[in-house]
Amino acid sequence: MTLPRLVDGERRLLFAGLVTTGAVQAGIAAISSGLVSTAVTTHSLLIVPAAGLLVCALLAGSAGLLERWVGEKLAQSYVLALRRKLFAAAIPAIGRVEEARLVLPFVGDLSAVRNWAARGPAALLTAGVASTGGAILMAAQYPALAAGLLPLMAATLLLLLLYRRLGGRIAQQRQSRAQLTRFVLRRLRVPPEAALAAQQRISRADRRRLDARAERAATMAIRRATMVGLMDGVAVAGGGLTVLALLALGSSDQRALIAALGLAGFAAARLLDVARALHALAGGGVALDQITTRLENADARTLAGKTNLPPPSASIEE
Asked: What is the mean pLDDT of residues 99-117?
């Protein structure tokens, strides 16, 4: 079995919709920045700027709502297709593979894949288009201030470098968490009539093993959170330094400076969304690798059953 394609069937239209919302948000930000600079430099909130800002605010809110709705619809469509494949692969393995290994993909992996589909490629595409569009519009309209975008560009490159390390930390966390979950399930899965005996059998060694696994899972979670926090910090710092750079460059045209600051702020805010999308992308990539392995092993078990060959080992780490 192979993984379903994310961009397939109706999901193609959903992806096109996400690109459109990103471009629309960049355009709205450009118009809003121009209106704000006009209102500030003229020291009056005329009817036209006020009405324009009101319309822009409503359009921006609608675009944000549409982005979230389309992203979730895309994610649920993909998870449904993937759940069907996992279920079909799990049926022949009943009685041959440990129960915990059959159940965990439907809980942990699909949750990560749903987050990946909704906030990984989808959000990365939308936020990337919006942030890039905002930066391009700023540089095109105010070329004298274009150098102020350098901190934002540097932050983007640093995010990509950190993203390459994030996948490894997520894989380590998932592995430690899966080991902890399987240990608990093995100790707690006993028939009711044997419950009292099971309570008496829980030894100090079992408690030490539980503590060791729990501490490792906690350590891996902290390491992952640290990397994610670093990525968010890079995005926020990039936006702050961009504002500082624009102010340092200055401009004799105060209207241009105010509008450029507005567009740079929009681009920086969407860069933070890019950082969070990269987190979801990394987590989903690890989960999809695990699911791919399971589907390949399911195919191998099916082939082994047809040819009377011994089935492959079911020892798959989360």
From this structure: 64
